[in-house]
Amino acid sequence: MCHARWTTSALVAFAAVAAIPAAAQQPATVKLGIVSFLTGPAASPFGIPGRNGAEIVLEALNAGKAPAPFDKVGFGGAKVEAKYVDEAGSAANVVTEFRNLVQRDQVDAVVGYISSGNCLAVTPVAEELKALTVFYDCGTPRIFEEKARSYVFRVSPHATMDSVGAARYLVAKKKSITSFSGINQNYAWGQDSWRDFVGAMKVLAPNAVAEKVLFPKLFAGEFGAEISTLLTSKSQALHTSFWDGDLESFIFQEQARGLDKRMTIIMTTAETAMWRLRDKMPDGTIIGARGANGPLARDTPINKWFHQIYTDRYNIPPTYPAYQMAQSLLGLKLAYEKAAAGGKPNADAIAAAFKGIEFTGPAGHVKMALGDGHQGITETAYGTYKFNKQTKQPEIVDIIRFPAECVNPPPGIDADKWIAEGMKGAKC
Amino acid sequence: MSRFEVDGSDVLTAFAILTDGLVYAAYLFIVAIGLTLIFGVMKILNVTHGSFYAFGAYGAATAVGIYANADWPAALGFLFMLAFGMAVGLVMGVILERGLLRLVYGRDEVVVVLVTYATFLILEDVIVLIWGPGSYPAYQPLVSAGNTEIGDLVLSNYDIILVALAAGLAGAAYWALKFTRYGRLLTTVIFDRETAAAFGINVTLVYTVTFIIGAMLGALGGAVMAPKISVTLGIGVEVIVLAFAVVAIGGMGSIEGALIGALIVGICRAAAVHLVPQVELFVIYGVMALVLVVRPYGLFVRAQPRKI
Amino acid sequence: MFLIAAAAGPALPDWVVSLTTIAFSNALVVLGLVVLWRAGLVSFGQALYYCIGAYIVALIGRWAGFTDAFALVLLGGVGAGLVAALVGALLARYREIFFAMLSLALSMILYGVLVKTESLGSTDGFSVTTPTFLGFALHGDKLILALYWLTLGIGAVAALAVGTYFRSIAGALAAPIRDNEIRVEFLGVSVTGIIHIKVVIAGVLGGLGGALGALTIGHVDPNMAYWTTSGGFVFVTILAGAGSVAAAFVGSLLFEVIRTIAVDVMPGLWQMVLGSVLLLTILFLPDGLGSLVARLKKRGEARS
Q: Which H, E and C letters describe chain A, residue by residue?
C-alpha cells in the first residue's frame, strides 16, 4: 500500500515536470538558450552585461536594424526567441539545465557560459546530444585542446591571449623590468592566468624575476596581509586577474596604502570595473579588456552602432562580456545564414558553416582559426588608465594593439606548450 | 651575513605579520562575536548571521551614499554609517526573532539551524530585490582615514581603527557580562538554561534581547567592513564559514574564546601569506580541526558534565 | 517502487531520465544522512565522501583506462568507506554541532587540496570518461538509460540494505542513542562503536552517490566537496524526513523537480523559492514529507 502511494506521488512529480510546456515550434522562429550568471557574485560584472548584450543585439537583429552584413531580420529572416537561464549552481545543476534547454525546450542553439568549469562540463554533453553550442566568455583553452569537437564553438579568444598580451605590453612599457609579483585568486582562472603570464614573461624578459606569488582564496575580500607583503617587496609591477568584488576590494585597500604608487599594476579584467570605479581606479593602471573590447575597441561603424544601442538602453557603456556575447551571436547568425541555403538548417549544417568562418564585429575581426575551425582568434589591446579630471570621464591612453597571431598560439599546438617553448611562430 | 643575524627586512616582515594578523583578527572577531553570543545563550548556530553581515554592509553603503552626497565631515559620516548599519541589524533581529524563531524554539537544535539556513537563502534574494545585483562602493571612510608609514610598510589608519574597535568591543562585552546585571543574567543562562529559569529569570526575554544584540553586532561587522570591500552579492556566504570556525575554535558562547580564536587564526594566516603562501587556504580549517581534536568543545568552554 | 520507475524509464524523455538519475544518486547520500540523523547526528561534511567517490571514478577512468561502470561505482563506494572508517574513529567522539563542524572542516580540507592541485584542473575539474557496462560501450540515450537503471539498481540494493539495518538491533538503537547515550552505554553497548559504523555506512552511501553522480554528469570538480554541497544534501534530508527509506528517494526527486521549476520560472530568484519551500516544510511538516504520507495513511486507515 505504502509503495503504491510513493509511486503515485513519484509519477505525479514526473508528470508535473514533463508538462512544463515546451513552447510550440513556430516554423519561422529560431530558439536560442542564453546561459549566463544572473545571480551570485559573477552576475554583476559578467553575467548581466552578457545577458544585456544578448537582449539588445537580438532585439536589433529581429528588427533588421543591424548594419551589413548582419542586416537580415533575425537569423536568415526567422525571428529569434531567447530563453535566459541562470548559470548559477553546481556542475550537476548546469548540466541538467543544459539538457533541459536542448531536450525539453528544444532550442536550436545554446549560447552562454562564463565559468570554465561549466564549459568543460557542458562540452561532452553538447557533443553527445549533437546540440549546437557557442561558449561566449569562459577562458580555458582546454576545451578544444583536449579533443576535437563537432558541435561546440567559441568565437571569443581564450584566456591565453590576455596573459600574453599583458606580458607584451608590460615589457613594451618597462623594458628594464627586473622584478614583478602576482596576486591572483586561488582557483583555476587565477592559477591559469598567472601561469601563462609568468611563462610569457620568461620568454619576453628572461632577466625579470617573479618575486611574490600570492594566491588568496576566492572572494577573500580582505587583502591586508597580501598588500603588506607587496609593500615590502622590490617589485616594479604587479599582475592580477582579479575580478569584481575581489578586484574592487583590492583596489580600495591598496590605494589606501599607496601600493599603486610603488608599482605598476596590471589588471587583466579591469575594464569591467572602470565605469563603476571611475576616479577610484588608480591612474597608471594597465587595463585589459580580454580583447579589443569596450574602450579598447577600434572606432569602426559597427562598434559605434553596438556601443550606441547598448548605452541608450542600459545607461552604461558595454563592457567586454557584452562584446563577447555580441560577437558570438553575430558569428552564429552568419553561420546560420550561410547554411540556410534552402529552408531551416539543422545543427550539422550550421556547424559545417561555422567552421573556420571569418567576420568583423564590434570587437574587431574574428578568424575561427584554432581547434580545427571551432575556436576564434582576434587581436587584443592593452592600455593605461587615466581619469580625465576636466571631463570627469575615464580614459585609456597609450593603447598598444597586438595582432591575433602575435598573442594566440598557432593551430596544432597547446597554448601552454606554445608559451613554454618560446611562443614560436608569433607574428607581431 | 650569518644565519643568525636578523636584518632590517626580517624585522619589518615580522612586524608586518603582527600588524596584518591583528587586523585580520579584528575582522574575524567583530564578525564572530555576534554569532558566539547567540550560540552561547540560545544554543542556536545562526546561519542567518551571514545575512546580518550582508545587510549591515549594504546598509552602510547606503548610508555612505547619503552622507557623501550631503558632504558631511568624515568622522560624523563614519559614526552615521555604523549607526545605520546597526539600525538595520536591529530591525532585522526584531523581525526574525518575533516572527520566525519564536515558532521553533522548543524544537531540536538542528531544526533551528536549518530554519536559519532557509532564512539565509531567502534573504540573499531579498537583497537582490532591494538593492539589485550590482555592487556598491563605500570607500569614503577608508580613504579619509589616511595612512601611516613605518619604513617600507604603509598601514591604513582605517585598519588601526578596526583593531581599536575590536578591542573596544571585546572590552565592552567583557565588562557588560561581568559587571552589569543583564550581563550576569546572560552568563547564568549560558551556563544552564533550566536552572536559570528555575531561579525565576525570564529566559524568553533574555533570548529575545540576546538575538537582537547578536543581530546588531553581525550587522556592525558588515558595516565596519563595507568601506574596505566591494559590497556585492555573496559577501554573506564567505563570512559564515569564517565566523563558525572562529567560534568553534574559541568555544561557543565564550567572548574570550572568540578573541583568542580570532588572534590565533589571524596571526597564523598572516604568517602563512608572508612566509608559506601555499598553505594559506588551509590555515583556518587546519587550526579548527587541530583545536577540536585537542579540546572538543573549543578552547574556552569546559566540557559540560553529562546529564543522565 | 523501483521496479515501476525502472519500467517507466524508456518511456520518459531523456532529460527527465537524466534528472531522475541525478536525483537518485543524491538520494543515496541523503540515505546516509538519514542513518546518522536517526541517531541525532547531522553531518555537514557528506560532500567529502561524495567527492571522493566521484574523483575515484574519474581518476581510475583517466589513469588506468578502466571504464566498467559497475566496478567503478563499487570502487567509489569502497574508497569513500575506507576514508569514513579512518575519520570515523575521530568523528565518533563528537556530538551535535561539533560533529557537524568537524565533518565540515574535513570536507573543506579536501576542497582546498583539490583546488591547489592544478594537474587535476583545480576548480575547473576534468571530465569523466564514458563508462562501459560489462564490456558494452553505449552511447546517447541508451547510455542515459543504462546509467538510470544502474542507479535504480544500486538505489534498490541500498534501500533494502539500510532497511534491514534499521530493523536490526544496531539500527534500532539509533533512537535511544539520540535520546540518552549514557543509558545506552549502561546496556553494555559501545555507543562510539555504533556511531563509527553509522559514519562508515553514510560514507559508503555518499561515495556510491558521488560515483554515480560523476558518471551521469560526466564531470568532476572540487565544488563537490564544498560545504554548500553538504548543505544541499542536508536540505533534502529535512525535506524528506527521517521517517522511511523511500522518503530519501522521493524527497531527492522532489527537490530536483522544484529546483528545475524554480530556475525555469523565476531565473533570478530561485534561491528564494528553495528557501521558502524549506522553511514551510520545517514549520508545517516537522518530520518531513515522510510524515505527510504517514498522516495520510493513518487517515485512510481511520476511515476504513
A: CHHHHHHHHHHHHHHHHHCCCCCCCCCCEEEEEEEECCCCCCHHHHHHHHHHHHHHHHHHHHCCCCCCCCCCCCECCEEEEEEEEECCCCHHHHHHHHHHHHHHCCCCEEEECCCHHHHHHHHHHHHHHCCCEEECCCCCCHHHHHCCCCCEEECCCCCHHHHHHHHHHHHHHCCCCCEEEEECCCCHHHHHHHHHHHHHHHHHCCCCEEEEEECCCCCCCCCHHHHHHHHCCCCCEEEECCCHHHHHHHHHHHHHCCHHHHCEEEECCCHHHHHHHHHHCCCCCEEECCCCCHHHCCCCHHHHHHHHHHHHHHCCCCCHHHHHHHHHHHHHHHHHHHHCCCCCCCHHHHHHHHCCCEEEECCEEEEEEEHHHCEEECCEEEEEEEEECCCCEEEEEEEEEECHHHHCCCCCCCHHHHHHCCCCCCCC
Closest-approach residue (CA) in chain B for A41: B233
Break chain B into its structural domains and give their ranges.
8-294
pLDDT-based confidence at B308, cuts 50/70/90?
Answer: low
- The CATH class given to the B8-294 domain equals mainly alpha
Closest CA of chain A from B260, distance in Å: 19
- Which of A21-25, A246-250, B102-106, C28-32 is least confident? A21-25
Q: What integer pLDDT is reported at residue C296 of this predicted model? A: 65
**What is the value of ipTM here, to two decimals?**
0.84
Distance from CA of C185 to the nearest CA of A (A): 35
Question: C-chain residues within 8 Å CB-CB of A125?
Answer: 218
Q: Where in chain A are the domains?
A: 27-158+298-377, 160-289+379-420
B114, B119, B241, B280: best to mutate for the C interface, most C CBs within 10 A: B114
Q: Do A160-289+379-420 and A27-158+298-377 have the same topology in CATH? A: yes
Nearest residue, CB atoms, A232 vs list B9, B142, B230 = B9
Average pLDDT, integer, range C215-230: 89
Nearest CA in chain B to A278: B137
B158 touches chain A (CB under 8 A): yes
User: Which cell numbers hold the place of A175?
Assistant: 623594458
Whether C89 has its CB under 8 Å from any CB of chain B: the answer is no
| Domain residue limits, chain C | 2-303
Average pLDDT over residues A87-100: 90
Nearest-CA residue of chain A relative to B149? A257
What is C2-303's CATH number? 1.10.3470
The pLDDT, as a whole number, for residue A162 is 92
Residue C286 banded pLDDT, cuts 50, 70, 90? low
Given pLDDT bands bounded at 50, 70 and 90, which one contains residue B54? very high
For residue range A70-81, what is the model confidence (pLDDT) as tens digits?
888 888 888 999
A280/chain B closest Cα distance in angstroms:
9
Superfamily of domain A160-289+379-420: Response regulator (3.40.50.2300)
Å from C238 to nearest chain B CA?
A: 8
- The answer, yes or no, to whether residue A25 has pLDDT greater than 70, is no
Predicted pLDDT of residue A22: 45
- Please report which confidence band the pLDDT of residue A26 belongs to, taking 50, 70 and 90 as the band edges: very low
Question: CB-based contact (8 Å) between C93 and chain B?
Answer: yes
| Binding-site residues on chain B for chain C (CB distance < 8 A) | 39, 45, 103-104, 107, 109-111, 113-115, 117-122, 124-126, 128-129, 133, 237, 241, 244-245, 248, 252, 278, 281-282, 285-286, 288-289, 292-293, 296-297, 306, 308
Regarding the domain delimited by A27-158+298-377, which CATH topology (the fold level of the hierarchy) does it fall under?
Answer: Rossmann fold (3.40.50)
**B156 vs A215: CB contact, 8 Å cut-off?**
no
